[in-house]
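Project standup — Tuesday

K.O.: blocked on the structure for the chain from last sprint. Re-posting the sequence here as requested.
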Amino acid sequence: MWEKLRIDNTAEPNRVQKVEHIRNLVLSGSQPAQFPDSIWAIHLKFWKEKSADELLQLIGRFTWLTGQPDLAIDWTRIEGALVHSGFAGNRSEATNLTNRPIAAVLQKLSLKGNKSLTRRDLKESLANAALDELGGRFSMAIHSRVSILETGLREVRHSVQEIQKRFEVPDLFLKPPRLILEVPPEADPGAPREEVVSNLVAALNDCVWLAIYGPVLSGKTELVIRVSGRLPSRKIWLRLQGATANSAAGQIDQMLETLSIGSQHADDFSELAKNVFSTLGQGAVVILDGLPRFSVGDALAERLLLLFWAAAGLGVRIISTSHENVPATLAGRLP
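H.V.: unblocked you, prediction finished:
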């Protein structure tokens, strides 16, 4: 039940009742021995007081560990939360606050002897402005090396795939789950929203990127399914519900790589997007359903900008759904 709601809660009938059933199951559990009373009290308070919509958002973001934990951290979201909650006065200050614990942990790891780390150590690091410069350097180095590794892996994969084609050998990689890029079926075809659908179809003729946003359970996905049913051209649907900004960026990469099979090799993301959109043809529509929160400058934002410019040059349209509108600073970089 949890997984069905997590993957696509808009397609689940009686989803609010199912959320309440999960709430009751969680609240009926007994306190684990390793949980302090204070933590258990916070846990119970959360499940008692949060609305069904808020719990649906939690379920959408939660991924069960399956032996391969996801180590990606959405730093931009953490920084945004620090600013929003008042712990940081601006984004620069929030960046320093997130970098300080990184510096403290890596310093601890570099020392011989005891490498234990306490909550007090982390709390003290947050107040230590002397760690700002070091933390910033560490953070940049981490992002740089991750980028180098990702680029290297893409190049290795491409080289191996070329060898496979030339010598007709079986696939040497363990493939990730195949992306489903088809438009899902209508869950509520009788909903009386014809005027809204017609207005959105008309708006799509005058823009490159149509961003639809609104709260959970407001019917965004179902609305776009109905809009896509009015469009005669080819449609690509990428499901992003529950993704972080980093994992959504990865799924967009995977989508383009899937659609580029048989196409000319591209050395960078922009070229890859142009190749794919050229193959899809003028009038094609790419739908990004469930964009997570993101900030200008992160991996997802940069990909969205490059997708936009590739689509604009080749007559392709983009539709996105999200809980939030596109950040104003990103929208300001679009015509």
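K.O.: great, moving the ticket to review. Residues 72-175 form one domain. Residues 132-167 form the longest helix (36 residues).
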